[in-house]
Amino acid sequence: MLRRGSIELAIYRWGEPRAGRPALLLSHGTGFCGPVWRSVAEAFASEFVAYAIDRRGHGASSKPADAYHFADFAQDIAGIIDELQLEGAYAVGHSAGATDLLLAAAQRPRAFRCIFAMEPTVMNQTAPKQRPLLQATREERLRRVARRRAVFPSFEQLFEDYRARPAFRDWQPELLQAYVRYGFEQQPDGSVSLRCAPQLEQAMLAHIFAAMDGTYRGDASGLPFGLLSQVRCPTCVATTEGSQPIFKEMAEEARQSLPDATAHHFAGVGHSVVQVKPDTVVLATRRFWAERAAER
Question: Where would a tag sit more exposed on the chain, N or C end, judged by fewer CB atoms within 10 A?
Fold first, then answer.
């Protein structure tokens, strides 16, 4: 557990720190938790010290009532970089977790050697696109989150319930088990409850949806997305075939904003590619790193 001011961040590690062994930092998307990276982390653990975090509001990390702006999450990553003394590390991020890494990389230019960013949530701050359809549906989407079931009688029943849901049906069973184990906690009466409670996810998604429909105005620190032009490490921005068009659009905005960015596309899979086809993520990441190393 890492403490940063009033925030505690849970960190999971695979592989032993050794001289000359690079670090790998993994950052999950909204609503998930660090251990959903387990398959990816284990694949790299013989070569890297792999760290996965529970982003604020998730898993075992602190859960403030508010403070879920993009800049808040990015500052958490910057704190982890400082605490672990990361320099020349590698990073892989998914969705809003990828955005965290990119914004932190702009603030800590020596931290990362390469970043593999899967469908980051980014808007063009200099020419924001107004998307009335998304604006019209945003409140209903937030209401659906508020109605999400958060308590189940047992871990076993929770697993069976989630395994039957379309959004989780294609997940690798061991990664769904990891999400159930670390994304929920057992209560004194034996029931289990969602750690990223619906009201917390609402607070996070409100900012993400605002970025999606082009209305995000940032927090007191100002609009954060202009920082992407200051990211100096090579970045691969990936999209997936089955995700919603908005994710592809935001990924392209991220790619155009980054000084040194390439693109990758995952065919035959949707937004949760990390949990559905982790081996494909490992292969694409290795290929990206190898290509950039060959250019040096």
Answer: C
CB of 258 closer than 8 Å to CB of 230: no
The predicted-structure confidence for 83-138, as pLDDT tens digits, reads as follows 999 999 999 999 999 999 999 999 999 999 999 999 999 988 777 676 654 555 77
Structure tokens given for 80:
């982890």
Domain ranges of the chain: 2-295
Map tokens 């990361």 to a residue.
86
Q: Please count the other Cβ atoms lying within 10 Å of the Cβ belonging to residue 239.
A: 20
Architecture of domain 2-295: 3-Layer(aba) Sandwich (3.40)
Within 13 Å, how many C-alpha atoms sit on residue 199's CB side? Answer: 4
User: 211's torsion region: left (phi>0), alpha (psi -120 to 50) or beta?
Assistant: alpha
Select from 205, 29, 225, 231 the least CA-distant residue to 122. Answer: 225
